[in-house]
Amino acid sequence: MYMTATGVTVEAQNRALLLHVAGPSIQKVFKGLADTGATYATAMAALDTHFAPLKNKRFERYVFSQTTQKEGETIPVAMKMKVKMFLQVVPIQKQ
Predict the structure, then answer these.
(1) What is the pLDDT of residues 58-91, one digit of tens each?
(2) Cβ–Cβ under 8 Å, residues 8 and 14
(3) Would you tell me how many other CB atoms lie within 10 Å of the CB of residue 43?
(4) Would you call 68 helix, strand, or coil by DSSP?
(5) SS3 for 7?
(6) Which distant-in-sequence residues (6+ apart) come within 8 Å of 84 by Cβ?
(7) Could you report the per-residue pLDDT of 11-31, keeping only the tens digit for each?
(8) Integer Cα distance of 43 and 26 in angstroms
């Protein structure tokens, strides 16, 4: 909203304005990130990736082990969806 109100339309200016308004602590984090690009969209993507919450592998295993078949749901469909979500969090490690 602030960028719309100020009338800034150039992507590089949007990026600079984002970093200015975010403050020195975010600027410090931003300097340490790789591949921040030169546009507002790439800067936001880099910050979103950095601040994305981490998944707790033990909790995800617990949730997976508590899976039950819901009414009207076939076993292959339910398990396929759960396995797919589980493997996104806890990848299989080759020995």
Answers:
(1) 887 787 778 777 787 776 766 777 777 777 766 6
(2) yes
(3) 22
(4) coil
(5) coil
(6) none
(7) 788 888 888 889 999 999 999
(8) 11
